[in-house]
Design goal:
Layout (H helix, E strand, L loop, with lengths): L6 H26 L13 E6 L3 H9 L2 H7 L2 E6 L3 H10 L6 E4 L2 H9 L8 H10 L2 H6 L1 E2 L2 E2 L2 E7 L2 E4 L1 H7 L7 H15 L16 H15 L1 H8 L8 H14 L23 H6 L6 E3 L3 H4 L20 E4 L10 E10 L4 H10 L2 H9 L18 H11 L5 E3 L1 H4 L2 H16 L4 H9 L5
Parallel strand pairs: 1-2, 1-3, 10-11
Antiparallel strand pairs: 3-10, 4-5, 6-10, 7-8, 7-9
Helix pairs in contact: 1-3, 1-15, 5-19, 10-11, 10-12, 10-19, 19-20
Length: 446
């Protein structure tokens, strides 16, 4: 793990990078017979970035380029779109693509590449990824042996968020096995007389995805990594008994009217509750448990405790989290998610931004702003905004951690961000499991 680079070191790195890009741009013009621009500098150029990151995270995304703009003069404009997954393909096909897209699903990345508008990653970006990420992360951005998209930020899926003070009051501890977690749920129900869990599946065009995270965690924990990989590859269908077992395990919690939906209502209210809103209910104490990725820590920055304070994320703070346990103590594995930086332009300014976003320096800038982590092996985990995020980032950087990428993000878009998302919504609405599994599997035929 590297230490934080000094501003002077970062400035030198970026300046050299930009100079190299400008030189390549001029060389390309000369070789192609085109007249170079009067001003070969990229200073003053604007690079448009679009993605599904909104709210305070979008503000921090924009801030992460302040130093880059100061050093290079390139203006970066980030636009967050809550319906990005549903809109980006249409925009690309309609000639309205941004210079750079931040793509949260590998399946969607493949769909975008099929439009013919995605640019292969520059060699300098590929070299950065080779140096700073594991081979698995690079493989997720590679299609048909061509590398297109560098990893950006990452998150650890499958955390269960709770109130340490409430746990102390009830005399309970974080569970280490699935059975212990079920016992914990029963205890909280007995102690409070209220539902122990809250959940939210609403995410506009992406509604349903939080439910896929639940299922993916259980497939990984019940059936194991090999079956998980076969499922992602389409060799194990959704109708397989091993996948149904995962639905049954999740349904023990999410379909139980006595166990959900704390602070909101009944089981059906899961579909009308925005996925990020659960942070407020955990913070004010009305929701004892919720299942969500590490990025939920960013949502706590926008909410308040019952005392009107911003919640402290710490083992002895207002909120904290444990990794969803497996069925035995030694069966620990984590599912991860993340975004990929995809280019629709290949001009010099865009290449300079792509290069910067693939470095530990950019990862350090963004991580230090809070709420996010990176799987960049050379980024500084100590810069993460809380003890929780530092632990999560160190977990990702640990070569001994068994990691699997979000299954729905790896599946074809017609399934991963299509029938799987819709199936989770239908399941919460009361459609029987066998029909839901058949409906999801049918997405492969589209």
């Amino acid at each position: 793990m590297t230490s934080f680079r000094s501003p002077r070191g970062r400035r030198a790195m970026v300046a050299l990078s930009v100079a190299a890009v400008a030189t390549m741009a001029l060389a390309g013009c000369a070789e192609g017979g085109e007249e170079p621009a009067d001003d070969a500098s990229i200073e003053g150029e604007t690079v448009r970035i679009s993605g599904g990151i909104t709210g305070i995270e979008a503000e921090n995304m924009q801030k992460s380029f302040d130093k880059f703009t100061e050093d290079t003069g390139v203006i970066v404009e980030y636009t967050g779109d809550k319906a990005f997954e549903g809109n980006i393909v249409t925009k690309v096909q309609g000639g309205d693509a941004p210079d750079i897209g931040i793509v949260p699903q590998v399946g969607l990345l493949r769909t975008l590449i099929e439009t013919g508008e995605v640019q292969p990653a520059p060699e300098t970006v590929e070299a950065n990824v080779d140096e700073n990420w594991s081979e698995d992360w690079k493989a997720y951005g590679t299609v048909d042996d061509t590398f297109y998209a560098a990893p950006m930020l990452a998150n650890v899926k499958g955390y269960v968020w709770y109130s340490p003070a409430s746990f102390e009051e009830w005399g309970v501890e974080a569970p280490t096995t699935w059975d212990e977690m079920i016992t914990l749920t029963e205890t909280i129900r007995e102690e409070t007389g209220e539902a122990p869990w809250c959940a939210g599946f609403e995410s506009e065009a992406a509604s349903g995805w939080p439910g896929t995270d639940w299922i993916e965690d259980l497939v990984l924990r019940q059936a194991g990594p090999e079956v998980y990989d076969q499922w992602v590859a389409g060799d194990v269908p959704f109708t397989d008994p091993q996948i149904k077992e995962a639905f049954d395990a999740v349904g023990e919690i999410l379909l139980n009217p006595e166990w959900v939906n704390a602070g909101y209502g009944d089981v059906a209210s899961i579909n009308s509750t925005a996925f990020g809103d659960v942070a407020a209910k955990v913070a004010d104490g009305s929701c004892p448990l919720t299942h969500q990725a590490s990025f939920l820590s960013a949502n706590f920055l926008d909410v308040q405790t019952a005392e009107g304070e911003t919640p402290v994320v710490a083992p002895d703070g207002d909120v904290y989290a444990f990794v969803l346990p497996g069925f035995s103590e030694d069966a620990a594995a984590v599912e991860v998610g993340g975004e990929f930086v995809t280019a629709f332009s290949d001009d010099a300014a865009t290449v300079a931004v792509l290069e910067y976003m693939s470095t530990p320096e950019w990862a350090d800038e963004r991580v230090s702003l809070g709420g996010n982590i990176s799987a960049n092996l050379n980024a500084d985990a100590s810069l993460a905004g809380s003890e929780f995020l530092q632990e999560a980032m160190a977990l990702l950087q640990d070569p001994n951690t068994t990691v699997r990428f979000d299954a729905s993000d790896l599946m074809p878009a017609t399934v991963g961000s299509g029938s799987f998302w819709r199936g989770m919504v239908d399941w919460i609405d009361g459609k029987d499991t066998d029909t839901v599994l058949s409906d999801i599997q049918a997405g492969y035929e589209n």
